[in-house]
Design goal:
Structural class: mainly beta
Number of helices: 3
Largest sheet: 12 strands, antiparallel, barrel
Number of strands: 14
Strand order of the largest sheet: 1-2-3-5-6-8-9-10-11-12-13-14
Distance between the termini: 13 Å
Strand content: 35-45%
């Protein structure tokens, strides 16, 4: 993942504002007053197949597939595909487990000489960048999908209680107007209300609204783990 490098770049950019404070995620407006925040372990630095943990939640039985990539080179043109699967079980004491299976994938096309090469992301034409199935305690699996729309990531999360939420990539840094080219975090949103924020900067942090019930919290925690493991730069460079 490139989260560590992204955070380091951001730190250099905001250095004039603060010489000793790491770059921080700019929270969605109105979110944070009635929330609980959990520091993440196992996200950055990331070790292959190690659990991801935050607060009472743990993504265990981690099964990360290797990143598989291929390219079809032609004179002055090439097409390539990159894919990476991962799966885990999100558990918390006295709460039902959530089984999660995900696939990240990217298609790219490049044209021109190497010194003046233009690369185009074709992933939106073939499906979402991230596609997951989440199964809460034996219920029917529900989808989590995240796709690139222009310069941002947007998606949706369906819940077993019959509700659909929006998933939005966040690209801002606190205390600066700078906009990142890759997400600094993600928000899970119900209409105009943000219910959870996944901060991918530095070691990572997950924020959950206190208004969520236990079942919603464990389901959103499972979603947060999937977003922490997502590499939005898949297929680049």
């Amino acid at each position: 993942m490139r989260t560590t490098a992204l955070a380091a770049t951001a730190l250099l950019l905001v250095a004039p504002l603060s010489a000793c404070t790491p770059a921080q995620l700019r929270m969605p407006e109105g979110f944070g007053a009635d929330t609980v925040a959990y520091e993440v372990s196992g996200h950055s630095p990331r070790r292959f197949n190690e659990p991801v943990r935050f607060g009472p939640y743990s993504a265990l039985e981690m099964q990360e597939g290797s990143t598989f990539a291929w390219a079809l080179p032609l004179p002055g043109f090439d097409v390539g595909r990159t894919r990476k699967p991962y799966a885990y079980t999100l558990v918390a004491r006295d709460l039902p487990p959530v089984q999660v299976q995900c696939l990240t994938r990217a298609w790219t096309a490049g044209a021109g000489r190497e010194s003046r090469r233009a690369t185009v992301d074709l992933t939106p034409l073939s499906g979402p960048l991230l596609a997951c199935g989440l199964q809460l305690d034996g219920e029917a699996a529900q989808p989590l999908e995240v796709a690139r729309e222009g310069r941002h990531l947007q998606g949706r999360l369906l819940a077993p209680w019959g509700h659909e939420y929006a998933v939005r990539g966040l690209n801002g840094y606190e205390g600066t107007p700078i906009t990142a080219t890759e997400p600094t975090g993600y928000a899970i949103v119900d209409g105009a209300t943000t219910l959870a924020v996944v901060d991918v900067l530095n070691g990572g942090r997950v924020h959950l609204a206190r208004t969520l019930d236990d079942e919603q919290r464990v389901y959103f925690a499972a979603t947060a783990a999937a977003l922490l493991l997502l590499d939005p730069a898949l297929g680049e460079g």
